[in-house]
Amino acid sequence: MTEDLLATLKSDTLADRAYEAIREAITTGGLRSGEKVTERGLAAQLSVSPTPVREAIRRLEQDGLLVRRGPRTVMVSDIGDAALEDLAEVEVGLRGMVARFAARRATPEQLDGLDAILDDADDLLILIVQRKQSGQIPQRHLDQLLDTVQRFNDALEACAGNPVLTRLLEQARVFSRAERRARRLEVIAHDPTFALDRYSSHRALVRALRAGDAEGAESIVVADARGGISDLLHAPRSVDGDSAAT
User: Fold this and answer.
1) Closest CA to 235 of 150, 146, 175, 152
2) Is the distance from CB of 138 to CB of 146 less than 8 angstroms?
3) Domain that holds residue 222
4) How far is CA 118 from CA 47, 65, 70, 126, 143, in A?
5) Theoretical Cys-Cys bridge with 65: which of 5, 41, 60, 116, CB 3.0 to 4.6 Å?
6) What is the pLDDT of residues 30-62, one digit of tens each?
7) Burial (Cβ within 10 Å: 0-12, 13-18, ≥19) of residue 211
8) Total of domains in the chain
9) What is the CATH number of the domain that holds 34?
10) How far apart are CA 216 and CA 222, in angstroms?
11) CB count in 10 Å sphere of residue 27
């Protein structure tokens, strides 16, 4: 029984990794619209067996990112701008629901933890401003700030205490975590002020959570998420690794 459970856990973990890898390849253009893919081909590229890839493909079909044209024929869906905008609205709505649940369920200890993470972010932002004023490129501190903001988001989801909602949100994200981070860093290269103070609204969010104001918390998160996703969707992209002109 124990061996069966461990085998299932290992398989699930590999399926999750395969899902994330294939999803990122689709959203970043590594797999193009209309391109045919096979279980064996993807498994070979990911160095895993076909079983977790089969599960990943099933989930990606549910997400609408892959479409089955026959028993063994799967193609990358044609994801247009309208579809991305629709997906963005779904993600925004789910993130708002996370905030609403967090307002009902967050413990004082969890809320203190959120404030502590924002304190870390404040310290990093001060260092970033100082480095920029002295003519330096604070790449390490930028990376740390993005990591800190991600820690806040993860902690907020933990406050919601709703694993079903968390899973739905992961499936509905417009960008994978890696792609979101890459796009943010790319846009920051064009605009050094981009998103560095976006987390400032999180202080108001924590206050709303402490007050048990579910509607207020949801409103703050929805506005922040909608603005952030829109900025990344419409941001200029680099061409052939070079920064585009501003």
Assistant:
1) 175
2) no
3) 81-233
4) 39, 35, 50, 12, 15
5) 60
6) 788 888 988 888 888 888 888 888 899 998 888
7) exposed
8) 2
9) 1.10.10.10
10) 10
11) 20
